[in-house]
From TrEMBL:
Domain of life: Eukaryota
Keywords: Membrane, Transmembrane, Transmembrane helix
Transmembrane segments: 12-33, 63-86, 98-116, 122-139
Protein name according to UniProt: Uncharacterized protein
Organism in which the protein naturally occurs: Cylindrotheca closterium
Length: 151
């Protein structure tokens, strides 16, 4: 592996890590807003008490889940755009897109894990099929490409 290839992997790896870090901060900010201010947890509920936390999750109105969707999508969009912009242009035309896809894909996996692990309503699975489209169009937006053909 040449030095330039190593630099490419390091730069793109750091772009993904940076995108995930910033995207996660946005995600956690919205989740904190949701659980502390918009729909606060009762004082006797903590994340450590699975039964009480599960009851709290089940009692949330649909709007609370909408904020969670926005948090997940925000992580994928902002993190993906940042990763795409930080990616090395030396890796070819698709380097930024790939970094964006990785951030979006990992965000989608995290969302699936939450949906499986938490006692959420079945309709919240509707969030998952949106991710591939969201990730694709985020990569297009970040790279400045369009699906429109030149006339």
């Amino acid at each position: 592996m040449s030095l330039s290839t190593t630099n490419l992997f390091v730069r793109n790896g750091l772009a993904v890590v940076g995108g995930l870090a910033v995207g996660s901060a946005i995600n956690m900010g919205l989740i904190t807003l949701n659980s502390k201010y918009l729909f606060p947890m009762p004082p006797d509920v903590s994340f450590d008490d699975e039964e009480k936390f599960g009851d709290y999750i089940k009692s949330l109105p649909p709007l609370a889940y909408t904020v969670v969707f926005c948090a997940h999508y925000g992580q994928a969009i902002v993190g993906g755009i940042l990763a795409s912009k930080l990616a090395s242009s030396d890796g070819g035309e698709g380097s930024g897109d790939l970094c964006c896809y990785i951030v979006g894909g990992l965000t989608m996996i995290g969302s699936i894990m939450n949906t499986v692990a938490l006692p959420v309503p079945a309709w919240t699975w509707l969030e998952i099929p949106v991710f591939p489209f969201l990730i694709y169009y985020t990569a297009k937006m970040a790279s400045g490409k369009s699906d429109k053909k030149a006339e």
